[in-house]
Write a structure and sequence with these properties.
The structure is a homodimer of 150-residue chains. Chain A has 150 residues and is mainly alpha-helical. Chain A contains 6 helices and 3 strands. Chain A is elongated. Chain A binds a DNA duplex (23 and 23 nucleotides) through helix 4.
DNA sequence: TATTGTTATACTCTATAACTATA
DNA sequence: TATAGTTATAGAGTATAACAATA
């Protein structure tokens, strides 16, 4: 208890990093008029193409009602449109606007810039050590979280 | 652009870790009837002792109104009490209940267990490499976030 | 009968502005 | 006049339940 175990030191850093990365992301997105939840939805559309709200709810692990709200907000701010689904008149296809496509491209570029700001030119072996350590931790963390999700 | 830069790989892992750690924390706290915001407030009280709501608002970087709501919730669920401030009748002293003290102790223990689950017995040099890498990244990340806060 | 998306309702976190009581 | 905390109002994310339209 007196000697601060190195595992504790590592977890403390992981926690601080979690907080700081989250803040950085939140403020960056706010500058674009987005929130993390809405951006997550945009991201799913970017990768999966136009989707029904049902598919989005499943992809985001969120209620259908919640998707209605997120799409309402994104529609009102010009990031997505609701199109009729050809073949199922119950469903709507949520689609990225050209502006959203642009913004997503900017975000991808921003991620790359952040990656080099944070991890660029780190001294021999440091980046490798970081990745190896993160992989080891992730391997143990994933099952812990996955178990809670079911 | 074709070769996935190792910096990108590192940031991807940091992001995944951020998400998973956040989920783990949220579900653990939910099991105790707490949210991250309320727990943050509890944490401040644990470290600083009974505090006015004004002090809590400053410590949490949150509006006074928000603290009223958080304290309302924690009071209703038996984690804190509002006591009169001796010497300033405008102010209230928010104080942890015995039960909250217990729960905080459990959380500290839970953190230690998580630390050994995630980082215990990692193989020679891996933990050291992780901490060194995290320190390097944190040193670059802190100024980025601090700048936005002012 | 099952599915898609909505309205209705509710809780949490967050903010600003106006107001009360006290300093 | 300034400060502590509240009420009033508002927006965002989240949930369940009831309901309409369609499959």
């Amino acid at each position: 208890m007196e000697t601060p175990a190195p595992e504790i030191a590592a977890l403390d850093r992981l926690m601080e990093l979690t907080v700081l990365l989250g803040e950085d992301m939140t403020t960056s997105l706010a500058a674009l008029g987005l929130t993390t939840s809405r951006t997550h939805l945009l991201w799913v559309l970017h990768h999966g193409g136009p989707s029904t709200q049902r598919a989005l709810a499943d992809a985001l692990s969120v209620s259908a009602r919640n998707v209605t709200g997120l799409v309402d907000g994104l529609e009102a701010t010009g990031f997505v449109t609701r199109e009729p689904h050809p073949g199922d008149r119950r469903a709507t296809l949520v689609t990225l606007t050209p502006r959203a496509v642009e913004v997503v491209a900017q975000m991808v570029q921003g991620q790359q810039e952040l990656a080099s700001q944070l991890c660029g030119g780190l001294g021999p072996g440091v980046l490798e050590g970081l990745v190896a350590g993160l992989d080891a931790v992730l391997e143990r963390l994933r099952p812990l979280v996955a178990g809670a999700g079911s």
